[in-house]
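Duplicate of earlier report; ABC transporter domain-containing protein input re-posted below.
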Amino acid sequence: MDIARIELSDLALEKGGTRILRGIDLAIAKGEFVAVIGASGAGKTSLLRCINALVPDYSGRVLIDGKDTAGLSHQQLRRGIGYVLQNIGLFPHRTVAENIGMPSRIAGKRRHDEARVAELLEMMELPADMARRYPAELSGGQAQRVAIARALYSRPALMLLDEPFGALDPATRASLGEAYRKRHDEAGLTSVMVTHDVAEALALADRVLVMHGGKAIAFAPPAQLAASDDAAVRALVDPPLRQARALLDLKGGA
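Output:
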């Protein structure tokens, strides 16, 4: 499987006279895990949608492995991209196996690859007999693991994740985030994850992109971000850092 490199050049987006994205230039290396943070309305999800060509009217360029996505058909582009949403989007009247194998049906095949489904269930640390269950029988964490497995089914080089763990309780969220990071490393993926949880971003990502008012105001490893003197960056990273210090103090005093 090839690993994707992403380059954004002067990426901008405007809707109804409102500027959503403003001249974003950045490069994401092959195999990198990037988290995107920022306040609501900062442009995080719009950035993902532009990369995945779900927004047709942006300006600037989006290149994946040097190819301008504007020149690719949706089928060509999506073949190499896995997309995971917060609301999961599993089909309620199809089994877990059918949900995971849905990319086969979208590609025009009559059946999914059962061996691939079994492999992905094991990869996501789900029992094999879960293949026969339906989404209503799953916990929130299990359903989200199935959604990630479905995104991985076609062996994409690039994974785009939009608040994938946002609806989960903190313990499940942390466990699933760590499990996904492990899968990312083992499969050699390039991952871009939007999250409102700054602590999650700092814990999981190789680099963190900070969005503010449609602009990319910082793009750095977590340790560098934690030392930033930019006021907008500090407003995001200081609260989880204070919480972490408070928890360490509690542990030290125990």
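The longest strand covers residues 18-28.

Merging into the original ticket.
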